[in-house]
Design brief:
about 260 residues, alpha/beta, Carbamate kinase, nine-stranded mixed sheet, 11 strands, globular, disordered N terminus
Amino acid sequence: MSSDRTLSPELTESSELRKDKPVFTRVLIKLSGEALIGDQGSGVDPLVMDDIADQIIDIHNLGVEVAIVVGGGNIIRGVAVSAAGLDRVSGDYMGMLATVINALALQNALETRGVYTRVLSAISMAAVAEPFIRRRAIRHLEKRRIVIFAAGTGNPYFSTDTAAALRAMEIRAQVILKATKVDGVYDSDPIVNKDAQFFKELTYLQVLERGLKVMDATAISLCMDHQLPIVVFNLKKRGNIRRAILGEKIGSFIRA
């Protein structure tokens, strides 16, 4: 699959780029459920959702085809509930359903701004979402619709990070934009450790060997096998999605 994907361009300084000229034309954005919480503690903060929707529409207006994988950690995390004694498979399916809730909330925020979207779910639920079909997803993107992938891969034991890597390859995205609460990849939690080391660039192998918590090992391995670059950046800094699309050197860049 990697052989017929357009090779991703190098990220360069913004001064070398033509104004408002995207270096990526089809992207997959990975949003964690925790990114939607804001200051509420749980659930979806409407102000955060509005800000995310505005940023996504901003790059969509540049002509970029946008797909999104959203997590469900703001509602429930399958790993966490299984650690508390619930069956792991049941917990993971509960987590998948939480991602559908977030996908519908994001869809509403986007469509109230006049942008057509489609939610594609890996678990069949025809009343609220289309089933995931690869060719249909690509066709939606070609028709300038924003596509939101929900319910992970549809299988337990796989995270939404793995779903993001898988979907990105299936739709032939040029990059995964991993939106986080910090500026990029560190060797430890920068919120807890003020001396945490920041990494501007990393290889896939370095992420795996150092056990860095960027995405889970399965997701990183998939990206490595198919040479799919990852940009990790701070979603809280307004305009960062646009900066990543324009090729500015923000956050951390992971590649071969």
